[in-house]
Design brief:
With 273 residues, the protein is an alpha/beta fold. The chain has a single domain (2-266), classed as Rossmann fold. The protein is 45% helix and 13% strand. It has 11 helices and 7 strands. It has helices spanning 15-28, 43-47, 57-62, 66-72, 101-104, 106-116, 138-146, 160-177, 197-210, 224-230, 241-267, and strands spanning 2-7, 33-37, 73-75, 82-85, 127-131, 149-154, 183-189. A hairpin with a 6-residue loop joins strand 3 and strand 4 (82-85). The chain is globular. The relative contact order is 0.19.
Length: 273
Amino acid sequence: MLVVAALSLKGGVGKTTVALGLAGAAQQHGVPALVVDLDPQANATIALDVGPTAATVADVLDDPRPSVVRRAIAPSGWGEGLDVLVGAEQSERHNHPDPSGTQLTRLRRALERLEATDEDLAGPYRLVIIDCPPSLGQLTRSALAAADRAVLVTDPTMFAVSGVQRAFDAVQAERARGNPELQPLGVLINRVRPRNTEHAFRIDELRELFGPLVFTGVLPDRSAVQQAQGACLPIQRWDTPGAREISAVFTGLLGRLLRSARRAELAAPPPTH
């Protein structure tokens, strides 16, 4: 089970759009996936068209037992193969600026128990996608403590470089603190207008500073994104040229994630008996 965090420390760059696009790509390509909505705004939960649940991610962070996790997971309205650990405004109570080590590991423990349990859950999942809030409090750090990979999301604006740098530093800090498996998968640039000279300048700036960490494929600024989200549908099922262009980027991102996981499996030492 590969856990990826969609991360941005600058609001309004489309972090949830990336989490949803990756979830839609996983469903399209038959990869069983779970979306964990850690953002107290719970926009991913709304867009994924989830029904009522007896618990939410806030309850899981209170008590990460498998029974609580089960009550907080619901199938997405998008169809089979995609479930949601539902978000809620109440998760803000867990967003302490200086959390303890025990608080930071609750999400990781919940996901580990979800993977290990033999009870009748909708999984097993090959991919877990965590939609983080746009701040570096307990919630985002909990995601990084649980994740194997982080996708750093930005837009091509004046503040993009500082936002990506802070996100990259947060990943490196969490690696040093207690999750050495965590790696930045790359920087994904969203809402790009191809003929905008300011956007071109900022993209060049990002590539100069972060090199191959910046994905070659960028997400263009298309109204199809808002239209699909408003209809509670994956972008992969929104049949317009703009939607198809965006879907291709998410297919590439999914492939990169799965190849990364496969390389990690091959590099791992064999189990001892």
